Amino acid sequence: EKGGYDHFMLKEIDEQPKALRDTLRGRIDESQRKVRLDEVKLTAKELQDIQKIHIVACGTAYHAGLVGKYAIEKLVRIPVEVEVASEFRYRDPIINDKTLVLVISQSGETADTLAALRLGKSSGARVAAITNVVGSSVAREANDVIYTWAGPEIAVASTKAYTTQLLAIYLLAVFMAEKRNTISVQDRVEILQALQMIPEQAAQLVAAKDRAKEVAKGVVDWNSAFFIGRGMDYTVALEGALKLKEISYIHAEAYAAGELKHGTIALIEDGIPVISLLTQPDVYEKTMSNVIEVKARDAKIIAVVNEGDMKAADVADEMITIPKTHPLLTPILSVIPLQLLAYYASILRGNDVDKPRNLAKSVTVE
Ligand code: M6R
């Protein structure tokens, strides 16, 4: 059932181009200008009425939600709060009939996420869900469901679920922006065209396994690693750090690059790996200045950059490039080398990749 692979995780990383293609299928109309989400029953009027969105999820799905905040606020201009379900459900959040609660869950069975969904409903909010499992509790109870078509995800470390969740979020953001008139046709076309190239670009990245393995060799001897970035890169840093922690057991911290000086930089020592994400053009120079600061303290810089980046090579000890895409979409691509990095770090350390210690695939109890 592993189809010739040693581990489900690597199989599932490799399945991402197909999973992305399947999740995209039929959801962009022939004119290339509109998103079709026939399953979303929210009327134009209901969409107009939404004043706030709460995205609620756990773990990797929460990290997908963080990307959702950037994409939705940028394109739809509705305030979005993102919260882990175990916090949201116990803090009496402000929810009413002008609120959309969007839960994200691969399994559709995570106890806290389901409880958050129910809280949203009982408080009068409209509840939408992004999930991978047809007929799951979340799918049954949400008012609207957008499925990711990633196929079964078996490995504990979530990979293809995350990238397809991002795709679903982008589609939803463009869909809402169009209905609320907050996006030009030109911007829509640009994003939708870029989205259609993503599966092929993901295929290029999953093929670059040797590169990831090389980089992993430079990380495994450390008990600590840092992931830094700004904006959407920061959200991917969080996901990259989670992947590394859960399967390699290397302590990894993700930091918003601008926060380093407020404490964490004290931990930077000679040779420590700092995975630096530099894919966001508007904050590139800012992040670069932080990278230079940690480099000056002899950190080992592993830079994740866009193809054609001419500057990063001057400071980076290792470079990982991702194919050119729309700046809003880089998380789908930049996460793939980080998934591979975590995978090879885990292998090199002799861990059980698919069943990391103390973790279960689906957390159905609190
Ligand atoms: O099934 P869900 O998406 O609700 O699961 C949420 C988290 O438990 C899950 O993403 C977890 O963090 C993964 N092990 C991360 O790789």
TrEMBL record:
First-listed, main subcellular location of the protein, grouped into a coarse class: cytoplasm
UniProt keyword terms in alphabetical order: Aminotransferase, Cytoplasm, Glutamine amidotransferase, Repeat, Transferase
Uppermost EC category: transferase
GO molecular function: carbohydrate derivative binding; glutamine-fructose-6-phosphate transaminase (isomerizing) activity
Any one annotated GO CC term: cytosol
Domain of life the protein comes from: Bacteria
Biological process annotations from GO: carbohydrate metabolic process; fructose 6-phosphate metabolic process; protein N-linked glycosylation; UDP-N-acetylglucosamine metabolic process
EC number in record: 2.6.1.16
Reactions accelerated catalytically: D-fructose 6-phosphate + L-glutamine = D-glucosamine 6-phosphate + L-glutamate
Membrane-spanning parts: none
Subcellular location: Cytoplasm
Domain SIS: start-end pairs: 43-182, 211-356
Residues of the active site: K361
Assembly and oligomerization: Homodimer.
Role description: Catalyzes the first step in hexosamine metabolism, converting fructose-6P into glucosamine-6P using glutamine as a nitrogen source.
Protein name as annotated: Glutamine--fructose-6-phosphate aminotransferase [isomerizing]
Organism: Desulfuribacillus stibiiarsenatis
Name of the gene this protein is made from: glmS
Residues of the full protein shown: 244 to 609 of 609
